[in-house]
Design brief:
A hairpin with a 2-residue loop joins strand 1 (175-180) and strand 2. With 624 residues, this protein is mainly α. Helix content is 63%, strand content 4%. The strands form two sheets. A three-stranded mixed sheet has the order 3-5-4, with helices on both faces. Strands 1-2 form a two-stranded antiparallel ribbon. The longest helix has 36 residues, at 452-487. The chain is globular.
Length: 624
C-alpha cells in the first residue's frame, strides 16, 4: 500500500489553524448553542420538546468534539503554533457555554418525577441514549445548585483549564542543550525520552540527566500549576459534598470503588514477583541494579530496524489473521489515498457505510521531526466519522506496537460510528481495553515466531510493559492519592512533591531500583497529572491492560470466531458500566478478588520465560 508519514488535516478543515472554514464552523457552533439554550429554557414534560432538545444537544456536543480533535492535532503537530494554542482556549470557553446549558438541563431533569422520566426514556431519540441520560440525571443529584455550577464552569476556563494550557505550553517549548557528534543541538523532552531506549547506557544516563535538569529549571512553575489545579478540584468537590477525591474519576470510568480496590489489592500482593525480571534485566544490561533511566532500555543489542512500511504491513496481516473486519479497517487507516471499490461492510456499527463515508486518506502522523509534541494519541472526529493517530515512529518494533495500540482506539471508535453521539461515549478504562488488545495481537504473533535474541527482545518488551502497568502506573496512583491528601492542608513545594514521588515509586517498585535510581521530577514531566478532562489518569490504563489480557487469553482459545464477540463487547462499551460489561460478556465479577488475581498471574507468566531466555543467551545456547 502507499504510505506517507504525515497525516491529512485539510480534509477536515482546510487551512490549518488559520482556516476560514473552521472559523465559520465555530461561528455556527456558537449560534447553535444560542438555539439550544432557548430550547432548554422552554423544557417541561412534553416528549417532543425533550426529543428536539436532546437531538440538538448531541449535535452541539459532537461539533465541539470535532473542533477539539482538530485543534489537538494542530497543536501536537506543531508545538509552536500559537494560533492553535489560542484556539484551544477559545474551545474551553465554548465548552463552558455548553456545560452551563447542561446545568440547566440537569435542573429540568431533576424537576421531573421518576414516572415521567421513565416515560420520556421510552421516546425516540431518548431511548437510544437512555443509559447516558440516566447517568446524567444521577450525576445531577450529586452537584451544587445550577447557579453555582454555572459559575464554577465559567471560572474553570480561566483557572482550572488555563493552568493545564499553561503547562502544555511550558512542556512543549522546553528544550535541552546537548552535544551530538561534536555539534550543539537542542532537543525536546520527547526526543530525550526516546533516548532512554538507546542500548548504550551512557546515552541513557546523559538523556536522563538532561531531562531532570530541564524539568528542574521549571519545577516551581510546574508545582504552581499542579497545586492550583488540585486546589480548584478540592474546592469544587467540597461545594458538591463529594467526600472522596476518587468520586469523579470512578464515575467517569463507570467503576465501583470495590472494583478499583480489588484490582490494586491484587497488584500490591503480587508485584514482588516482577523483581526477578528487573534483576535479570539488570544483568543483561551489565549494571548492578536498575535505575529509572534503564527501565525501557532494550535487553539485547541489535541493529535491526523496522520501517514504517514494514510495520504497516505486519499490523494489517496480524489484524486480518484475528478475523472480522479489523484487518480491512487497519489497511484503510494506513492508505495514502482512496481505495476505490473497496470498503467494509456494516460491521459492528451496523451502518454499511461506503468507503467515502467511512474513511479518509492519511489518518496517521508518524514523522520524526522537531517541533512535534511528545507521546502519542488517537483522537476521534465524530462528525467526519474518522480518527487521527499521532506519534513519532522511531523505526523499531516497539513503535509498531504503539501504532497497533492507537489503531485499537481507532477501531473501537469506528465500530460505534453509526450510533447516536451520546451512545458512543465509553470510559477511558474500556477505551484502553481495545488498544491494549490490539497491541497484544502484535506482540503474541511476533513472540510465537521468535527465537534466540529476538525472543529475548520481545519478552523484554512484554516485561517492560508489565513493569509499566503494575509498578509505574501504580506509583502515579499512589503519588496522586498522597498529594491530594497533603494538598488539603495547603500547597506543596516542588521539593515536597519530589519527595512524595520518590516515596510512591519506592513502594510501587517494591524497592527494586537503585537507591539513587528513581525519578523525583516525574510529577513535573508527566502530562497526565495536569489533564483536566480526566482526573487520576492512571488506573484506567491498568484496568484496560488487565481486562484486555483476559480477552486475549479468550481469543487464543476460541480463534477467529472470537472476532464477532469482541466487536459486540466493544459496541456495548457505550451503554454499560465496566461491571455490567464483564458480567454480560465474560461472566466475571469485577468487584471480587478472583478475576484480578488471575489477570495479574497471566501477566506475570512473562517473568520465568524471560529469565530462562536470558540464561540461555548467557550460556550461548539456543532454545530447542
Amino acid at each position: 500500500m502507499e504510505l506517507q508519514e504525515t497525516w491529512d488535516l485539510e480534509g477536515i478543515f482546510a487551512g490549518g489553524s488559520e482556516s476560514p472554514q473552521f472559523a465559520g464552523f465555530l461561528a455556527r457552533l456558537d449560534e447553535g448553542l444560542d438555539t439550544l439554550a432557548g430550547q432548554v429554557a422552554a423544557l417541561g414534560e412534553e416528549p417532543g420538546d425533550w426529543s428536539a432538545a436532546v437531538r440538538d444537544w448531541q449535535q452541539r456536543a459532537a461539533e465541539l468534539g470535532e473542533a477539539y480533535s482538530f485543534v489537538e492535532c494542530l497543536a501536537a503537530a506543531d508545538t509552536g503554533d500559537a494560533v492553535a494554542t489560542a484556539l484551544g482556549g477559545r474551545l474551553d470557553a465554548v465548552e463552558a457555554r455548553l456545560k452551563a446549558i447542561e446545568v440547566e438541563i440537569d435542573k429540568h431533569l431533576l424537576a421531573l418525577s421518576d414516572q415521567t422520566w421513565q416515560h420520556l426514556l421510552q421516546q425516540a431519540p431518548l431511548a437510544e441514549v437512555a443509559f447516558f441520560l440516566d447517568r446524567q440525571r444521577a450525576m445531577a443529584r450529586h452537584k451544587m445548585d445550577p447557579s453555582r455550577e454555572t459559575l464554577a464552569e465559567t471560572l474553570a476556563v480561566n483557572g482550572y483549564h488555563a493552568w493545564g494550557r499553561m503547562y502544555d505550553k511550558l512542556a512543549g517549548s522546553l528544550r535541552a542543550s546537548v552535544t551530538e557528534d561534536g555539534q550543539a543541538a537542542e532537543l525536546s523532552m520527547g526526543q530525550l525520552v526516546h533516548r532512554l531506549e538507546d542500548p548504550d547506557g551512557a546515552v541513557r544516563a546523559d538523556a536522563f540527566r538532561h531531562l531532570e535538569q530541564a524539568w528542574r529549571g521549571v519545577q516551581d512553575l510546574s508545582a504552581m500549576a499542579l497545586n492550583s489545579q488540585a486546589g480548584f478540584r478540592q474546592s469544587l468537590y467540597a461545594g458538591r459534598g463529594w467526600q472522596s477525591i476518587l468520586w469523579e474519576p470512578l464515575h467517569l470510568n463507570r467503576l465501583r470503588p470495590e472494583t478499583l480496590q480489588a484490582m490494586w489489592d491484587a497488584i500490591a500482593a503480587k508485584s514482588t514477583a516482577l523483581l526477578p525480571y528487573l534483576e535479570a534485566k539488570a544483568r543483561l544490561l551489565n549494571i548492578d541494579r536498575m535505575r529509572w533511566a534503564d527501565l525501557i532500555a532494550p535487553v539485547a543489542r541489535s541493529d535491526s530496524r523496522f520501517s514504517y512500511a514494514a510495520a504497516a504491513d505486519y499490523i494489517v496481516e496480524r489484524f486480518a489473521a484475528f478475523g472480522g473486519e479489523l484487518g480491512d479497517f487497519a489497511r484503510h487507516a494506513f492508505a495514502r489515498r482512496w481505495i476505490e471499490g473497496e470498503g467494509l461492510g456494516g460491521g459492528g456499527g451496523g451502518g454499511g457505510a461506503s468507503p467515502r463515508h467511512a474513511f479518509a486518506r492519511r489518518w496517521i502522523e508518524v514523522e520524526d521531526r522537531p517541533g512535534k509534541a511528545a507521546g502519542g494519541f488517537c483522537t476521534d472526529l465524530p462528525l467526519s466519522r474518522q480518527t487521527r493517530i499521532f506519534m513519532t515512529y522511531g523505526g523499531t518494533f516497539g513503535g509498531a506496537t504503539t501504532l497497533a495500540h492507537e489503531l485499537g482506539h481507532a477501531y473501537h471508535a469506528w465500530l460505534l460510528r453509526d450510533r447516536p453521539y451520546f451512545a458512543t461515549h465509553y470510559p477511558m478504562a474500556l477505551a484502553e481495553t481495545a488498544s491494549t488488545f490490539c497491541e497484544t495481537l502484535i506482540m503474541d504473533a511476533a513472540l510465537d515466531a521468535a527465537d534466540g535474541e529476538q525472543e529475548l527482545t520481545l519478552l523484554g518488551n512484554i516485561g517492560d510493559e508489565a513493569v509499566m502497568m503494575l509498578m509505574n502506573l501504580r506509583s502515579r496512583f499512589l503519588f496522586e492519592t498522597a498529594f491530594f491528601e497533603r494538598r488539603a492542608q495547603g500547597p506543596l513545594t516542588a521539593d515536597e512533591l519530589s519527595a512524595l514521588m520518590v516515596d510512591a515509586q519506592r513502594e510501587a517498585y517494591c524497592g527494586g531500583l537503585a537507591e539513587d535510581g528513581y525519578h523525583p521530577l516525574f510529577w513535573a514531566s508527566k502530562l497526565h497529572f495536569y489533564l483536566t478532562s480526566m482526573p487520576f489518569y492512571n488506573f484506567p490504563y491498568v484496568f484496560g491492560y488487565l481486562f484486555s489480557n483476559g480477552l486475549s487469553a479468550l481469543a487464543r482459545r476460541e480463534g477467529p470466531g472470537f472476532a464477532k464477540a469482541y466487536a459486540q463487547l466493544l459496541e456495548d462499551t457505550g451503554s454499560m458500566t465496566c461491571e455490567e460489561l464483564a458480567q454480560r460478556h465474560l461472566g466475571e465479577d469485577l468487584t471480587g478478588a478472583a478475576f484480578w488475581e488471575r489477570a495479574v498471574d497471566r501477566v506475570l507468566e512473562v517473568v520465568p520465560r524471560f529469565t530462562r531466555a536470558a540464561q540461555r543467551l548467557d550460556a550461548g545456547t539456543e532454545r530447542s
